[in-house]
Amino acid sequence: MAFMGTTRGGGDSSSGRRVLVLGLGLCLLLVGVAQAVEFELVPDAGSIDPMMLPTMDGEPPRECATPVSVEEACRGASETHAGVDYDHCMASLGADPRSKEAGNKNMHGLAVLATKMAIDHAASTESKIDDLAELEAESTPQARRARFNHCLEQYGGATDLLRDALDNLKAKIYGKAMEQLTAAMGASESCEDAWKGEEEQHRVPVAAHDREYGRMAHIAFGFTHAAAA
């Protein structure tokens, strides 16, 4: 009986050891799986392409863009768009220090810059027309005041359209941006048409600004079209 009891006790001890070993094996297996999953979900920092990471200001990841000089951009736009004059394009973009910034040395960056310049011209022209309208408020005939108001409406609308186009351009929604740029181009022509019939010296009081805005809007469109290609 004593012998049988000893045998039974040894069997219980052996069974317990087997259970312990199996438990440790299962634990190690689970740890290994967890490490493998973590390795897959969190790749090594060296394997991440920095160009695919979001920028610090929350903008979408930047893509590699082909460098383009102002000369190349202006030449291309002048060859494909009748409204763009090469010499004027070079003079306008070349005179703006922003064209030398790193972010503006590709077609997308130059399109954004040209659109910003068009916004500046539209806002400046609107302001000058408003100033003239106020100066002539008391002595201006009703028909002339109506022409001023028409031009103010045109340039106010153009400025809004250009700002919307800039937002779409930054988001690389080129088709919508080009639609808005096209609509904004009409401001200068519409303002000029409103003054037809006036004596030569009274036509479009801000004619130089009006023409400059129209030219800049065409450059912005030409660059945006090239960026979308």
Topology at a glance:
Elements: H1 2-41, H2 70-80, H3 86-94, H4 107-135, H5 142-170, H6 174-194, H7 207-228
Structure, briefly:
This protein has a domain at 70-228: Up-down Bundle (Butyryl-CoA Dehydrogenase, subunit A, domain 3), CATH 1.20.140. Helix 2 (70-80) runs antiparallel to helix 3 (86-94), helix 4 packs antiparallel against helix 7 (207-228) and helix 6 runs antiparallel to helix 7.
What does this protein look like?
It holds the Pfam family PMEI. The protein is mainly alpha-helical and 229 residues long. The chain has a domain at 70-228: Invertase/pectin methylesterase inhibitor family protein (Butyryl-CoA Dehydrogenase, subunit A, domain 3), CATH 1.20.140. 70% of the residues lie in helices and 0% in strands. It contains seven helices and no strands. The protein is elongated.
Which structural traits does this protein have?
229 residues, mainly alpha, Butyryl-CoA Dehydrogenase, subunit A, domain 3, 7 helices, Invertase/methylesterase_inhib
CATH superfamily of the domain at 70-228: Invertase/pectin methylesterase inhibitor family protein
CATH class of the domain at 70-228: Mainly Alpha
Poorly predicted runs are 1-11, 36-63
Largest sheet: none
Distance between the termini: 96 Å
Q: Any idea what the CATH architecture of the domain at 70-228 is?
A: Up-down Bundle
Pfam families: PMEI
InterPro entries: Invertase/methylesterase_inhib, Pectinesterase_inhib_dom, Pla_a_1-like
GO molecular function: enzyme inhibitor activity
Protein name: Pectinesterase inhibitor domain-containing protein
